[in-house]
């Protein structure tokens, strides 16, 4: 009797590497497919700091036009996105849910960036009021809870970081195991890949690492015999073979991109000095894209149902992104978000800084599109990996100068298997800015990712108990 090969049948390499095979229709019975989908819901969170270039009137520059949000609530059309940073996502308009009027609680963090970043995935206030840059969130983050309750084999959710390590709020700051228990993030994509591949050389001697690297050949090569036998199975149709080829080439492409993103000298210098940390915006976003490649691979192979990717420290106060028109690196992004040459309300005004902020937003939108491209490339019987789960682009603040806790951007790609609406721009609570609904959003996303109560109902217990935590019906399909 032939054993059924599910999507979680794994390829085992050196050190117990687990990079799972995609779902193969020819090796699963019709009844099994009807009982269980080949891809389970997941969530990949992508964090940007400092708000966006939205319509506002500032003391520094006066009126600033809308450059981010779609023109009108309703269907996401090319015309509705034209001229906005979100136009970078036009090719995915029918698979997007853009959520406006997401409002956070004005918890007493003592600093707007701490309030936004630490509350972003926790919907919790501080452990101690008024600590500012020394603050900690008073609860678990959603990415960790999804991993803790849903991940196979006890794997913790992935937390990945791109940017300069250290700085405001200590660098990685959005993921928590529990109150005050902040998680460390994987900064270097190579280290993150080693976690997926089961390779652990931490603390090993140089000789041991050399021996390990010689043994750690491509996972595809290590299991060539098994794959050859699998590809020879008569049950596999052409669609199965395409899925398998796509998955294996994705692993190979990832290995190539990790080894070739920098010259050998640049990579050695980077590894020796900071382990992947950088304040050059080109390197920061390139690292974020590599993390996205890893995130897509991790959810495709069943390693995790949750990934959080943070870009920049608490206020992204070190990164300098490039102006595509001049070719030069712009000012510190936090300065640009303040519209001044400082980390506070002093300093000279940066002329045209609202437009510079927009240019950063466009680059983040293009980086988010890279993640969508990666997820859409994995195809299964029910649709692509993007259709099965959610990629969520979040921002700590509604805008830069005001550090607003109102109208914080949320863009969701993918319907989590049909749970969420798509192709829409929705303003929560009819645009009523007095409604605090951020915890409701996180409970809705957690439920979409598969979290349930002991009785099998949608969750409504995530975040501070003083907040409304009911699901947002306007987001449901």
Please sum up the structure shown.
This protein is an alpha/beta fold.
Q: Which residues form runs of ≥5 with pLDDT under 50?
A: 1-18, 29-37, 211-219, 259-263, 265-270
Structural class: alpha/beta
Q: Classify the helix fraction into a percent range.
A: 25-40%
Count the strands?
Answer: 16
Count every helix, treating DSSP H or I runs of 4 or more residues as helices.
15
Relevant terms:
477 residues; alpha/beta; eight-stranded mixed beta sheet; two-stranded antiparallel sheet; 15 helices; 33% helix; globular; disordered N terminus
Describe it.
This protein is 33% helix and 12% strand. It is α/β, with parallel strands linked by helices. An 8-stranded mixed β-sheet has the order 6-16-7-15-14-3-11-8, sandwiched between helices. A two-stranded antiparallel ribbon has the order 1-2. Strand 4 and strand 5 form a beta hairpin. It is globular and about 70 Å long. The N terminus is likely disordered.
Topology:
Elements: E1 10-12, E2 18-20, H1 30-35, E3 43-48, E4 56-58, E5 62-64, E6 74-75, H2 78-81, E7 96-100, H3 112-119, H4 142-150, E8 158-162, E9 176-178, E10 181-182, H5 189-197, H6 206-215, H7 219-222, H8 224-231, H9 238-260, H10 264-273, H11 281-300, E11 306-311, H12 333-338, H13 353-377, E12 379-380, E13 383-384, H14 385-388, E14 390-395, E15 410-413, E16 424-427, H15 438-449
Helix pairs in contact: 5-11, 9-11, 11-13
